[in-house]
Amino acid sequence: MSVKMIRIDDRLIHGQIVAAWVKSLSINRIWIVDDGVAGDTFITNVMKMVAPPDAELIITGTDGIASRIKEFDTADKNTLILVKFPKVAKLIFDAGVGLKELNVGGMGANADRKKLFKNISASESELADLRAMKEMGLKVYFQVTPNEKQTLFEG
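^ thats the sequence. predicted structure below, dont judge the formating
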C-alpha cells in the first residue's frame, strides 16, 4: 500500500509537512483533495511553489477521489493525502482506501468550532464525522509532528 498517511490539516502544505512528515514517511507524492483549492488557480500555484521539489503534487476536488484512490493505494509512490475537513477524509475512507487510520493535525479555531485537542478545534458536524470514522473501525488520532506521541481521538 502506498498511501502512507491521510491527514486533516487546514493549512495543507506548510513547514511541518515539508520538513517533517515528508521526510519521516519517505513521501514522493502529495495529493491534496479540496474543492476550494482545486477551483482556485492562485492557491493551486501557491501550493505548487511550497511543495517539496522532489514530491509529485496532485490537486483534485472531491469528485476525483474514486478515480484515483485504488491507483494511489497500489502504486509504488509513497503518498500523503491532505484534506482540510473531516467530511473529505470520510469520503476517502468510504471510497475504499486501504489505510485504516486518520491523522488529525491541524484544524484551527473559529466561531463554530470548540477546542478538541491542543490547537485543534472542531464543529459539531466535524465531530460527528470523526466519530463516524472511529465507528468504522479506523484509528483516528492527533499528532501534529512525527516526533510527538499519538493521542487517540476518544470522541
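The first helix runs from residue 15 to 24.
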